[in-house]
């Protein structure tokens, strides 16, 4: 089930940010959620592979990865040893892949929900912030995948853990079927991944729609609809909290993007 919640006040935003639960075993507060922000509430939860190759995604995926490896191996000879490494490095550099980006930080999720290169259009459409329960998703995994998590005392998969359990996309698709998805923690290959607190969902070929999957298999998924009238207010709040292009995408290009927006005249 997907719960739809409309966000019309800053107080509601604060509730999202502070959504943690007390864990008696460690006497600390923790969150079990991952977030994905989208600037238009009507945008679908599609991977870059689905957006780029549409109905031919599964047919073209092998060719995309084969050509990527052929040229990327010069930069990193070890890339041919793990399909999971291929996907993460490819995704990081703009390759169409079956990975979908998520973040552990609701602030970073809000940043992506509010961002719009054309600042004059920020208030034209409502945004969306998706929230999924990582424990709920992990509970759907096949037994051998759950066992690996228990063995490693982990709550998310790493590249090495994936390589130990499944070495090919074909076997992964067979294992997952229509009712399971692995959530993957990428290695910190650069500062951008660290700053964005990045995670990925690895979409199996059997799951044709992530939204239908979440509707059918989960009870804690929430889609926050952020009122377009509130977006500039949230944007200014995020700037004060140091959540902006300069931090999320380190580099001179994003530094100038942040300065350009900061001094934008409405």
What features would you describe in this structure?
With 266 residues, this protein is an alpha+beta fold. The chain is 44% helix and 17% strand. It is built from 14 helices and nine strands. The chain has helices at 10-17, 48-53, 57-72, 83-92, 106-114, 134-138, 143-152, 159-165, 169-176, 191-196, 210-217, 231-240, 245-248, 252-262, and strands spanning 2-7, 21-23, 28-30, 33-38, 99-103, 127-133, 182-184, 198-202, 221-226. A four-stranded mixed sheet has the order 1-9-6-4. Strands 5-8-7 form a three-stranded antiparallel sheet. The protein has a two-stranded antiparallel ribbon with strand order 2-3. Helix 5 packs across helix 12. The mean pLDDT is 94.
Topology (elements, then pairings):
Blueprint: E1 2-7, H1 10-17, E2 21-23, E3 28-30, E4 33-38, H2 48-53, H3 57-72, H4 83-92, E5 99-103, H5 106-114, E6 127-133, H6 134-138, H7 143-152, H8 159-165, H9 169-176, E7 182-184, H10 191-196, E8 198-202, H11 210-217, E9 221-226, H12 231-240, H13 245-248, H14 252-262
Parallel strand pairs: 1-9
Antiparallel strand pairs: 2-3, 4-6, 5-8, 6-9, 7-8
Helix pairs in contact: 5-12
């Amino acid at each position: 089930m997907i719960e739809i919640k409309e966000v019309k006040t800053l107080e509601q935003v604060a509730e999202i940010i502070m959504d943690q639960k007390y864990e008696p075993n460690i006497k600390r507060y923790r969150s079990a959620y991952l977030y994905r922000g989208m600037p238009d509430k009507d945008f679908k939860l599609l991977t870059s592979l689905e957006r780029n190759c549409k109905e031919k995604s599964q047919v073209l995926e092998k060719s995309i990865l084969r050509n990527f490896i052929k040229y990327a191996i010069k930069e990193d000879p070890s890339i041919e040893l793990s399909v999971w490494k291929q996907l993460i490095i490819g995704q990081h550099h703009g390759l169409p892949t079956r990975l979908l980006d998520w973040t552990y930080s609701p602030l970073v999720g809000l940043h992506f929900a509010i961002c719009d290169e054309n600042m004059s259009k920020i208030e034209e459409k409502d945004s969306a912030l998706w929230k999924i329960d990582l424990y709920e998703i992990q509970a759907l995994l096949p037994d051998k995948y759950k066992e690996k998590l228990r063995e490693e005392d982990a709550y998310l998969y790493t590249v090495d853990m994936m390589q130990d359990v499944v070495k090919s996309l074909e076997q992964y698709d067979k294992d997952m079927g229509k009712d399971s998805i692995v959530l993957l923690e990428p290695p910190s290959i650069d500062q951008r991944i660290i700053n964005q607190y990045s995670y990925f969902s690895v979409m199996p070929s059997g799951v044709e729609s992530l939204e239908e999957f979440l509707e059918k298999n989960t009870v804690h998924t929430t889609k926050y609809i952020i009122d377009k009238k509130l977006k500039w207010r949230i944007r200014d709040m995020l700037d004060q909290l140091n959540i902006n292009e300069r931090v999320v995408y380190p580099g001179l290009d994003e530094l100038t993007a942040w300065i350009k927006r900061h001094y934008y005249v409405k």
